[in-house]
Amino acid sequence: MPAYLVIGNGIAGINALEAIRSLDPRSPLTLIAEEDFPPYSRPLISLVLEGALPPERLPIRPPDFYRRLGVRALVGQRVVELDPKAARVRTDRGEQVAYDRLLIASGAHPRTVEAPGHQLAGIFCLRTQAQVQAMRAHLPGVKRAVVLGGGLVGFKAAYALLRQGIAVTMLIRSPHPLSQQVDPEAGALIRRELERHGLEVRVGVEVSAFLGSKAVEAVELSDGERLACQMVVVGKGVRPAVDFLPPEAVRTDSGILVDQHLQTSLEGVYAAGDVAQARDLVRGQPWVNAIWPVAAEQGMIAGANLAGRPVVYRGSLGRNVIRIFTLDLMTAGLVNPPRQDDYQVLTHRDPRRGTYRRLVLHRQRLVGMVLLGRVEQGGVLLALIQRGLPLEVDPQRLLEPTFNFASLLP
Ligand SMILES: Cc1cc2nc3c(=O)[nH]c(=O)nc-3n(C[C@H](O)[C@H](O)[C@H](O)COP(=O)(O)OP(=O)(O)OC[C@H]3O[C@@H](n4cnc5c(N)ncnc54)[C@H](O)[C@@H]3O)c2cc1C
Fold this sequence. Notes:
Helix content is 20%, strand content 29%. It is of the alpha/beta class. It has 3 domains: 4-109 and 246-306, FAD/NAD(P)-binding domain; 123-234, FAD/NAD(P)-binding domain (3-Layer(bba) Sandwich); 326-408, 2-Layer Sandwich (Enolase-like, domain 1), CATH 3.30.390. A 5-stranded parallel β-sheet has the order 3-2-1-7-19, with helices on one face. Strands 9-16-10-11-12 form a 5-stranded parallel β-sheet. β20 and β21 (286-287) form a beta hairpin. It is globular. Flavin-adenine dinucleotide binds at residues 7-13, 32-35, 42-43, 45-46, 78-79, 105-108, 126-127, 152-153, 156, 241, 244, 273-274, 290-293, 295, 320.
């Protein structure tokens, strides 16, 4: 009977536990997880910040989940050391756990900004439900917030605060938020929609200091200007949660590199979710697509492989569906391709209907899309990208609003 160990109770870890148990009902199965809240939906925490969802609605599994699954759950403990030679980990409470097969599903940690004053109250990252609870407690009295970064998390934080009537200044490098998800034209439309609701965007400036006595009262910018604010949200991206790995024990790049079975460079040690770097479907190279459906699928597949049922992981695909006030957005795949002849980019904008569409093709195959305003046909386009099927129609026809997309799928 192999002893299984899973690190992390995000969606990748949870799905792995379930997959292992469905294939191996009896072997010892241990979970070590830093967060002691029941497994919950991380993408929904910004709705809690917004006040649109009570925190009690976040959990995605019942409180007795671990017991029912026969999992020894060491929650509220952090793995601080992994010894691959001894096949053992140690936690911050001194607990030692040996394993035969290990899954690292420890997700990612937010990058912080180490400028002077970064320890003042009122400066937050948005990653865990505990951080959101702390942010909500700080909200009364906040009239202006500063959001650092315009990626998915910075965008979601800004959106949640704007929805509550708080003025938000966003400091970003590219001229618009969501620059990883959309192209500049869609980005400009999104920025305009956010500005209509009180967002101020500053491009090309950084925070050089946080000012205040106990709580943040202002930020000082790299150009010397001071912005008064009562809250700061740091959304400067994430780094894989691998602090417990000894240097060079496992092959890493932007995440832990895994093969087609999600096994790391160490025999019997697998990785899944935001911490893992697996093959990207449209890029054809290893990539970290740090999104929920990817983590969920990888968790399931890694769990099956751990339990001895070989399952090949085809690859991940970045994708998102987002509502920005009255504007729907759907994106997938490679939306800003490298400047090469064999990529074709088609766009269509209808200002009257308020829609925008961008499709990216590579050798007659759809590899990326941005739909803004109308996203109903997105499901078919997503399936086309995922299946990598060559298009049998003139790609221009995909821009026609009345085109029957279902006809494209066999
Ligand atoms: C605000 C926000 C909004 C998002 N919105 C979307 C969205 O709209 N759509 C989408 O697809 N994705 C979204 N995401 C991303 C999505 O939430 C993640 O991709 C997904 O949760 C990753 O799951 P995971 O299981 O890999 O990692 P995580 O959910 O990060 O779980 C990892 C767990 O491991 C624990 N851990 C870490 N280190 C250790 C250690 N040393 N010892 C023990 N435990 C450890 C952590 O505490 C954590 O609980 C969003 C993320 C955030 C933060």
